[in-house]
Amino acid sequence: MSAAMKEGSREEYRAQEERLRAVWANPAGWRYWTSVNNFQIGLWYGSAAFAFMLFAGALALLMRLQLAVPDNDFVSADFFNQAFTLHGTVMMFLFAVPIFEAVAIFLLPAMLGAREMPFPRLGAFSFWSFFLGGIFVCGSIFFNAAPSAGWFMYPPLATDKEFSGIGADIWLLGLSFIEVASIAAAVELIVGIMKCRAPGMRINLMPLFAWYLLIVAGMILFAFPPLIAGDLLFEMERMFDWPFFDVARGGDPLLWQHLFWIFGHPEVYIIFLPAIALMAMIVPTFSQRPIVGYSWIVLAAVGTGFLSFGLWVHHMFATGLPQISLAFFSAASEAVAIPTGVQIFVFIATMLAGRVILSTPMLFGAGGLAIFVIGGLTGVMVALAPFDWQAHDTYFVVAHLHYVLIGGMLFPVVAGLYYYYPLIDAKKLSDRLGGLAFWLMFCGFNIAFFPMHLSGLRGMPRRVFTYPAEIGWNWLNLISTAGAFIFAAGVLVVVFDVLRPKHREPRGEFNPWNAGTLEWISEPEENWGVRSIPIVRSRYPLWDQKDLARKVNEGRYYLPDAEEGWREGLVTSVLDAEPIHVLRVGGTSHVTIVSALSLGGAFIALTFHWWIATALAAIICFCAVVYWLWTGTGEIPEKPEKDVGLGLSLPLYASGPDSVGWWAMFITMVGDGTAFASLVFGYFFYWTIHADFTAGIAGPDAIWSLVAATLFAAAWGLMVAARTVNRRGATAIMRGLLVLSLLTTVAASAAGLAAPSSPGMDPTRHVYPAIVWTLVIWVLAHAALGTVMQTYCLARSLAGRLTPKHDMDLSNVVLYWHFLLVTAVITFATIGLFPAAM
Amino acid sequence: MGQYFSLSAASLLLASGSAGAQSVASTQSVLEPAGAEAQQIAILFWVMLSGGALIWLGVVGLLLHSALFNRRRLAEKSASRIIFWGGVVFPSVTLSALLAYALWLMPGLRPFAQASAAGLRIEVTGRQFWWEVVYRPAQGPPVASANEVRLPVGERVELTLKSADVIHSFWIPPLGGKMDMIPGRTNRLSLMATKAGIFRGPCAEYCGTSHALMAFSAVAIEPEAFRSWLAAQAIPAEGAGASGGALFLRHGCGSCHFVAGTDARGLIGPDLSHLGSRVTVGAGILPNTEDAVARFIARPELIKPGSRMPAFDMLPPDDIRAIAAWLKGLQ
Asked: What is the ipTM of this complex?
């Protein structure tokens, strides 16, 4: 009996494996680039980010050459100013943040025992947006058109059209585009971590990497929107002369500084925490034991995330703020050193409690830590307002920030590269080259940046393209330049080690470091992530669950097959990871590229004020996105449930909070709400700095404001009613309510428009009408999007794709309307009623 | 290992630093304080540096020990204790102490009430890429100048800082910390020089193409000398060679520059009334010589890219030399 059955089951196993492989396969030929698989996207994302880093590094070398000797004329002042602006911008926006998104997209599904990220096409869209925006921003320097106002773009220098021509627009629009990509990636990461973990992986069993990324993605959601709001104000001033930062018409350049640093400081931790997350995976592996103090490090990371939003003013200690603010923000900035210290000591404790195996990843990790601690200590120094008055905007700060970012981010990323490379290629990178790279980078870095502390204390300001010979900075700068080239040589060794052909080397073993976490099950040759989705019972399942790898690869767990030809994964509950339903994710598609490129085209055309091209690209993007949604989301499955293996049957469709789409909408709208809150902050900021904020200009009509708010509330009520009656099966009534709500929304928008236009508010005259109009336009744009969603639901219902049982579209749109209601009510209360109440 | 290399980097650095110090006198250093605020901050820095160095050695030593020499697997409980004492208690205690020290320092560093009582107020306005300076003594008329700030040693001076275009930052490292000059706002800074000397003050907030070439001289002199200097500044200077003065006016220099006692009443460029007595020209970038003044007049954009002053190299070289000689004579 057994021989025949074994033969049969082996054949069955092979057939399963073939189907699964076919479903997850990458397309061949040029269509490879339409792939959406997380391994490919992660790899492309990471390679592009790394290439941008090399480009920005080359700019840094040019700057170091210019500064090698005093009174040098190797490059012009203008080129130097473009170079440092682009260096900072590219390193921050095109390397430091995207590289972690890349690593996350590459690793997370395997680490969580999921097959894929929940929205693979969104990941692809994010990558293509990032790639196009990055090339646009970097390319500008070859046309002598790069931004040159410094990477924090302070107005009025950056709003001065004579000084900053197209470069500033390239910065604003190019980066807004990339920020959209980052937020898209953050949404995907949050949903992926919360909803797509393997069954049994309760939230306290999650790998630390996932914890950190959850925190970081959450931080992106609250940190990037203020910058997007700031970009919006900035571009309105540059393009339409709305005077947000123009002092003569009531504006204030400090508002930009607030908005920028509310983003900019958390940004530092957005960069730093994922690198620590890599260390939190590497250190236990090479200490051969679980991490000591799992809860400590998670709490410390959460604490860092929270505190990082309360520190931004320490970038503004020299702007003349009251001493009480300086004292408060000095204290808060010191406090953030405590959770950082906890994280470092968690690593030391883990190493002490284990037995350390020396390896290239550990070398880079330890070297990075030694560097980072110096950056942390100088951070403690500059966090104190009095010392910052001296150190601010000098080379001391340049040294500090590079010690933090290179020690706290670049070294751990290279450690991660050496650690995780076997997952890309099934081979290890060379230990000899790794060691050489490490010592070149470590020595070069310290030779380059340590002297900068002293040049700064000797009074050298940052962002100077030259300096006189008599001040005593000559030797320090020459040494820095030499160090920079040694450092660059080390980076090139890493690049060589990655790129050198390795096909002659034998395939390495699985899990070559004997790590304990799930990602080491995945095989680089296979695209499916895991052969079957396991049940996880431990933080280090490969150490604690016997035979797990074998059983997973034999398809003994969930979803070992793809019999219906879909890419499938499991959605589980947020805290306990109980299986809820089967998620069918989108496969290979070119709609992601089309929508990313057309959106990019719209932003680029806008930079050059090519209005028609902008409109065309926007329309193409709109159509592509609608096509994407219509064909790729909310599909009604051919059967309600499916057997996922191990005797478990799960639904194939979910709506509301059980579905990943609902979470994505919720999270996106939280980010959207943050951007809106930043605009409201702007309104009240102007109110606080002026004795009479309105400058005698008649404000929006209170009656129209009230009417608009009421009508928006009515439209919202109709939407909620539509969802409710649809669930009861009254499809016709639902359609009627949708139409009614749509009409009410149009009426509400008209009333909203009347509020500022009836008293004839002119946004170019003064900042008061400008900020009022901005808030109104914000609401109206959201209302317009709301009507598109209503029309979409109506069409889905008429096409039979939205039914009483399958109402994901409607349920997500109602969620959008909750946020729209809040936005509208706050806006019209602020602009229409607040001035009257004052 | 890491320790060895950054130490050697440090020793290299110190060697180079002393070599640099021998050849030139540093006039822009935070570490050679000549003012009350800078003195306190320098002490704060040395305290933090010593503490920081000890902490770094401790952490890196512990790291190396755990990686290289640790042969005894520590029990999980003792390891957690390390996190608690090293990661929570130690930083909390040291940082609280440091914060208390800095907060105790702060109110004393910039006491504005005292400054107003002292009577001398200096208004400095940042412009791309130079500094407009107006002295407002308690008695006597205001005195206009540019690109140079003189201070009496031992007296507190209140500076009111403004900007006419973009954000600049006012900084005299040996005297005290910096303060931004922001359009639409007036910031106040109070400084007290404790030693006489000439210091260089750079613009410390990136302000455009020639940000690197925007500096001024800060000259701290004894109070008596200061008062007589200020009195002299209030009176128009006699230029050497009247022909230079006439040429200055004939070629239209007066439409941008102000020279007291002449018909040059422009307010766009720096006040040149006593240019000859200043330490530098071109906003802290050239020595004050006739030759330098002549070069600046001929091709300002060569010396300072982005400067708003047009080139005057179409003038006969003799005219330029005569104007330069006259300006240099405005002592």
From this structure: 0.93
